[in-house]
Amino acid sequence: MTRFIDAHVHPPVREFLDGPVAPYLDGLRHFLDVEIEARSADELADFYRSRDAKAVLLGWNARTASGYRSLGNREIKALVEVAPDVFYGFGAVEPNGGAGAVAAIHQAARLGLSGLSFHPAAEGVAPSERDGRQLWDTAAEHGLVVLVHTGFTRLGAGSAGGGGVSLEPARPIHVDRLAAAYPSMRIILSHTGQLWLDEAVAISMHKRNVHLCLSGISPKAMSSELLDLIRGPLHDRVHFGSDYPFGNPDAWLAEWDSLGLPDEVTRAVLVDNVSALLAG
Ligand SMILES: [Zn+2]
Fold first, then answer.
1. 140-187 pLDDT, tens per residue?
2. Which of 101, 113, 114, 138 could form an S-S bond across to 108 if both were Cys, CB 3.0 to 4.6 Å?
């Protein structure tokens, strides 16, 4: 039986570490105090398989803002194919990429990917500012899950000017109009908005198609109010993600267990909610 689904994994393959996050890696290692080492797709699959777990692998495309290469749809698909019993894949498209972005969304669907991952802070574009409706119409047409990194980012954190990265596009409120315009679109607010937790909670309380991914917030740091929401009104729309390799799933799960929550809450957060979300 699956013990957990890690819904937020950045595959630490060479193409990713030497590609889009390369300029931030030294800072991330310093800021996070975690090991960030390259792994092959097989090693990553074994990591999760040995834990009776599955993982959602996320693409990355911030080419316009950063000038660095992406981890695109085809690369994510290739990783998933290494271990389709373990991996789900979310693609990534160029923000404000016009016709190219629309074509890339069709491609993600054709490849059988489950969703698309957006990182507004890295991309420098808020969801509400993206090119016209065509991009979102296309994602909705294919029923792709839309995952949006919200709140604080550790990219550039602690450096002068935050490495040129602005947090403002990652405010959860920029997802609100999108969620309102596409009620059938399944949307994930990753990292629960962090310092903008209230915004993320307000949107997910208001709109049933919005889900919260608990990646980026450690269980011991969760307020009693957030835990009440997880047990109560949001019980079927919150799920676990580790942000691996920038977060450690084992450490998160050990902390979670120490909270002593009822088994049905743990099962919902670790497996059932994201399983239902991915199944549509
Ligand atoms: Zn992430």
1. 999 999 999 999 888 888 888 988 888 999 999 999 999 999 999 999
2. 113
Taking the centre of ligand 1 as the mean of its atom positions, its distance from the CA of residue 32, in whole angstroms, is 14
Task: State the CB neighbour count (10 A cutoff) for residue 260.
Answer: 7
Q: Which two tokens stand for residue 185?
A: 């679109």
| Contact predicate 236/264, CB 8 Å | no
pLDDT digits 0-9 by tens, 181-207: 999 999 999 999 888 999 999 999 999
The domain limits of the chain are 4-279
Burial 164-198 (b: 16+ CB within 10 A, else e): ebbbebbbbebbbebbeebeebbbbbbbbbbebbe
Q: CA 163, CA 181: separation in Å to the nearest integer?
A: 33
Pairing relationship of beta strands 238-239 and 145-149 according to DSSP bridges: unpaired
CA of 7 to the centre of ligand 1 (A): 10
Query: Residue 30 pLDDT > 90, yes or no?
Result: no
CA 205 to centroid of ligand 1, rounded, Å: 23
Contacts of 94 (CB under 8 A, 6+ apart): 61, 63, 64, 70, 100, 101, 104
Give 10 Cα–ligand 1 centroid separation in angstroms.
6
Classify domain 4-279 by CATH architecture: Alpha-Beta Barrel (3.20)
